[in-house]
Amino acid sequence: MRMEETDILLHMPQLRGRLRANAALAKVNWFQVGGEAQFLFKPEDADDLAYFIAHKPTDMPVTVLGVGSNLLVRDGGIDGIVIRLGRGFADCSAQGDRLVVGAGCLNANAVAVAQENGIGGLEFLSGIPGTIGGALAMNAGAYGTETKDILIEVEAIDPQGNLRMLSPEKMQYGYRHCGLPEGWIFTRAILQGKMEDASVIAARIEKIARERTDTQPIRSRTGGSTFKNPAEAKAWQLIDAAGCRGLKIGGAEMSQQHCNFMINTGNATAQDLETLGEEVRRRVQDSSGVLLEWEIKRIGRPREEEKTSLVA
């Protein structure tokens, strides 16, 4: 028997957040594709989220979404509970040369608060779409700096619903990778900057904005960089050399402007996008011997009729 909202809520009388069944996810990710979440939960704050995790059915999987900027939700949707962090996780404040920021805060908003308070060194985040939670989860980086380089401490909820504080060492960071076991949910972070003149910081932010506009399809339905850069190479160069710039499958296309960006040209399905990505990987391997690794996280189920055509 399929579990209903009331079945979950009966075990959580103190829950304050909003729980919905059969929630559409295409509207909450940047590709604007994908199926429904079995359940979508928007907690009020970290305490509400911890309570939910501690009391949810133990066999029900949990998926955390930020703003869906580096994410591909498959067409069959996501089983279990999808958690989306909202306003209760979007706070951001300066404390001397540090920033205390919620996991749901947009990277661009965090950088703006830092700039207003004369905290430099965080500008690279303005070039990374998404939230602080997403940056923590993948050690996001750009322009020579990674999240781990500015991290002092992380607040997170473990799979049992306990609120924990973690040092950067506990995060086991690598290139675009966090080694923390599955099931941990980031709620807040302390980031280290340096005191600088606000106008100098603003100039660096402006430079990054110009570079992104000139080199990336930022106004398209995209998920950011599709593949990680392999050792001593640039993914886009390998993709270009394999003849994949502008390659199309269905409504999905490798950007002409930056060929490591996939685009939903208007009517793409998640299957179109994932199939295109796998075709690019095949051609690059044939051309260079390098098997590209996905940077975009792919989650959920393909539709039943699509399962045999997708490469996991």
Summarize the structure.
With 312 residues, the chain is of the alpha+beta class. The protein has helices at 5-9, 46-55, 107-116, 132-138, 168-171, 198-215, 235-241, 270-288, and strands at residues 18-24, 36-42, 62-65, 71-73, 78-84, 92-95, 98-102, 119-120, 141-142, 145-146, 151-157, 163-166, 173-174, 177-178, 185-192, 194-195, 221-225, 248-249, 252-254, 261-264, 297-299.
Q: Could you explain the architecture of this structure?
A:
The chain is built from eight helices and 21 strands. The model has no long low-confidence stretch (mean pLDDT 94). The protein has 312 residues and is α+β, with helices and mostly antiparallel strands. Helices cover 26% and strands 27% of the residues. It is globular.
* Order of H and E elements: HEEHEEEEEHEHEEEEHEEEEHEHEEEHE
- Unreliable residue stretches: none
- Please, what is the average pLDDT? 94
DSSP summary, beta strand count: 21
Shape: globular
| Strand percentage | 25-35%
The biggest sheet amounts to: 5 strands, antiparallel
Termini distance?
28 Å
| Radius of gyration using CA atoms only | 20 Å
**Would you tell me the structural class of the helices and strands?**
alpha+beta
Give the count of helical stretches: 8
How do the strands of the widest beta sheet line up side by side? 6-7-15-11-12
Helix content: 25-40%
